[in-house]
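Per your request, structure below.
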């Protein structure tokens, strides 16, 4: 937590800002009652910049809206995110200089609360946090507005401890030691929810999690999907005679790529996996001859893979899930576990298959159903257009302006 002396310093700085306006402002004010407000100073805060996943695609769109904003993050691996993000002035936390921080930053999770509270955001009028871990708890100036785009309350500290830190993931002893650490982190996460003026949720599913863990309401603003880039290249393309399924995912426990592998083996169908992550070695051991690991691929390559696949698989519970919408924008159906945000983006029997049973047998049955269903690529594409980038930019800007007006504070 921030010390009283730091709050006092902030108060003194704020008083000084009010007491000593610039001389040019005084001259302008004496000449006319209609004075243009000074440009709002904006800070964007994102947990870490180590790759272009769903959260970073949202961040990229936010950066488009605020090109002059300063970007704060716990860890930044240079060149790992898009040029639009990299163009911003990026400030990093002390975690950046810990050993191998760019590779094993998750190991420093217990240090994140102290690190985010060290960010000095006093001079900003608007703070936008893009948070799935800790940065929603930054401390801003009392007169500033803080809008948090919440991808999810911290998964590891709340309901997915076992997926990340269970005995089968990190060993029995380490799992037992980490449990009280994560419990303290959850208490801190809940206690600091009041630092946010307005929560924006990426789905109704996440809005429910925000209510449950933070006791706060939120505004749903669906993430941006580039439906101009991800598009139906050939509306008349024939169905493939041989099925081919695709996973595009970070290889982390909660994504349940292991379930996709087991289901594809039971169904006897080929599976391609795009992505990297800490689960990669284990998943390689599970895969057979019909499972192909492609590593990371360019956006163009992924678009081509979407378009040439029978269906894209989503075996885990997603807070929203941008990959299914990207696939649908290319006219490709989705086979997904029927839980979480995917229930808001996939229509069973029309744009994909929602699987009720999260077992290998249940998911294999979903793959078989996808092969026998005559999906219409044009209809699938039309449904995806509800989640366009243009819609996100408009809805996000409106929500931020509403939050600023609601606060009614100017500096």
């Amino acid at each position: 937590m921030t010390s009283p002396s730091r709050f006092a310093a902030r108060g003194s700085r704020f008083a000084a800002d009010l007491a000593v306006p610039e001389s040019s402002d005084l001259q302008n004010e004496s000449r006319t009652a209609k004075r243009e407000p000074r440009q709002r100073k904006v800070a964007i805060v994102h947990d870490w910049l180590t790759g272009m996943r769903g959260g970073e695609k949202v961040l990229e769109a936010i950066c488009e809206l605020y090109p002059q904003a300063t970007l704060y993050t716990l860890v930044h691996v240079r060149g790992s995110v898009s040029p639009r993000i990299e163009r911003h002035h990026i400030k990093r936390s002390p975690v950046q200089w810990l050993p191998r921080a760019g590779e094993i930053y998750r190991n420093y999770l217990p240090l994140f609360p102290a690190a985010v509270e060290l960010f000095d955001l006093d001079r900003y009028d608007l703070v936008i946090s893009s948070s799935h871990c800790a940065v929603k708890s930054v401390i801003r100036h009392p007169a500033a507005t803080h809008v948090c785009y919440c991808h999810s309350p911290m998964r590891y500290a709340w309901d997915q401890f076992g997926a990340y830190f269970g005995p089968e993931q990190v060993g029995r002893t380490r799992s037992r030691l980490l449990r009280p650490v994560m419990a303290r982190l959850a208490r801190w996460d809940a206690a600091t929810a009041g630092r946010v003026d307005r929560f924006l949720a990426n789905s109704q599913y996440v809005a429910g999690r925000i209510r449950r863990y933070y006791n706060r309401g939120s505004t749903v603003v669906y993430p941006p999907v580039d439906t101009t880039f991800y598009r139906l290249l050939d509306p008349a393309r024939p169905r493939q005679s041989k099925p081919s399924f695709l996973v595009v995912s970070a290889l982390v426990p909660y994504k349940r790529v292991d379930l996709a592998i087991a289901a594809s083996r039971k169904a006897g169908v080929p599976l391609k996996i795009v992505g990297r992550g800490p689960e990669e070695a284990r998943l390689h051991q599970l895969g057979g001859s019909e499972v192909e690991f492609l590593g990371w691929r360019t956006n163009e390559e992924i678009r081509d893979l979407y378009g040439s696949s029978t269906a894209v698989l989503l075996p885990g519970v997603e807070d929203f899930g941008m990959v299914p919408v990207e696939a649908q924008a290319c006219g490709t159906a989705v086979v997904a576990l029927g839980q979480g945000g995917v229930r808001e983006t996939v229509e069973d029997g029309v744009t994909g298959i929602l699987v009720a049973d999260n077992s290998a047998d249940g998911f294999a049955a979903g793959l078989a159903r996808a092969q026998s269903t005559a999906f219409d690529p044009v209809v699938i594409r039309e449904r995806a257009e509800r989640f366009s980038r243009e819609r996100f930019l408009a809805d996000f800007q409106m929500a931020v302006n509403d939050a600023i007006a609601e606060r009614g504070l100017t500096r």
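The chain has two domains: 39-224+390-407, 245-385.

Regards,
D.
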